[in-house]
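S.,

Sequence below, as promised.
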Amino acid sequence: MLFHFLYPLHAEYGFLNVFKYITFRTFGAAITAVLLSMLTGPGFIRFLQRKQMGQTIREDGPKSHLSKKGTPTMGGGLILLSITVSTLLWADLSNRNIWIALLTTLGCGVVGYLDDYLKVIRKNPKGLSSRHKMIGLLLTAGLAAWAIHGMPEVPSTLKVPFFKGWTLDLGWWFLPWAVFIIVGASNAVNLTDGLDGLAVGPTITTSVTFLILAYCAGHAKIAEYLQIPHVPGSGELAIFLSTVAASCLGFLWFNTYPAQVFMGDVGALALGAALGVVSVITKNEILLALCGGIFVLEALSVMAQVASFKMTGKRVLRMAPIHHHFELKGWAEPKVIVRFWIISILLALMTLSTLKLR
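The prediction came back faster than expected:
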C-alpha cells in the first residue's frame, strides 16, 4: 500500500525512490511486524483471558505440563494480524505471488481457528474432526496450487538441489505435488507446536532462509549466477517472509518459556502453509524439507509411533511427537527447545550452502 501511494511521488521527492527496492521494504515490513506484534500483544492476551480461551492439557503427557492448563491459546491470531497488516503496507499488491501466499496462510489459519474454537469455546476436546480439518487444508492448498499453476512464470518442475542439471517436469502432477507440500508443511508445524516457543524458533530460521532464497529466485542475474530457477516476481515474497519471521519474533516475546500465550492451531497451521506455498512458488520444495528438518522429524516421529503401535502393539518412542519423548527421558523443557533451535539454525546454514553446491 505504501509502495503504491509513495513510490509514484519519487519524481518530485527523490528520497521516496527507496520504496522501489525490495530490500528497503523488506526491512520496513519486518520492523512494522515485530513492533505491531509486541505492542498489541498484551492487549490481545488480556482479550483471550477475558474470553477464557485457556489451553487444555493432555493428562497422559509430561506432568510438568499440567501447570500450563488455562494459559491463553489462539495467540496465532496475533501473528496473522501482524503478517497481514505489515504485508499489505509494504508489499507490491499488484504481485500475484503476494496474494497467493497471504491468502493461503489466512485460509489455513481459518481452519485452525475453527479447530481451536471448538476446543476452547465450545469445550469439545476433539475439536474439528481430522476429516474436516484435512478437507479444509486440502481445499485451501488446492486453490493455491491451481493459482500457481496458472502463472506462466512459475515452471511446473521439480528442482533437485546439489545437482544443477537435475530437473523433473511434473506437468499436471504439479497440482497434487504442490498440495502435498503445503498441507504437509502445515501439519508438520502444527505437530511441532507442543512446547513454549518450540515451533516459533524453527519458523523464524526457515522464514529468514527462504527470504534469501526468494530474493535470489526473483533476481535474474543472481539466479543465473547461482544456477537456480528464476521466477519473475518471486522476490516480492521476501517482504512477506520478513513479516512471518518478524511476527513470530514479536510473538516469541510472550510465547517464550514459561509461555504467557500459546499460538494454537490458528497459528501453527497457517505458518506451515506459509512456508509450504513459498517453497512451491520459488521451486525450493526439497530445500524446505532440509531447512525445516525439525518439522519433518516431528511429523515422522508421529507417523513411526502410530505405524509401530498398529503393526506390533509397541511404541518406538515414550511419547510422540518426539519433543515429548525427550521430556520423558528427563530433559528439561527449555533444554529441548533450545537444542531444537540450534539444530534448526544448523539446518538453515546447510540450506543456504546449497546455493554454491550446484
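The radius of gyration is 20 Å.

Coffee later?
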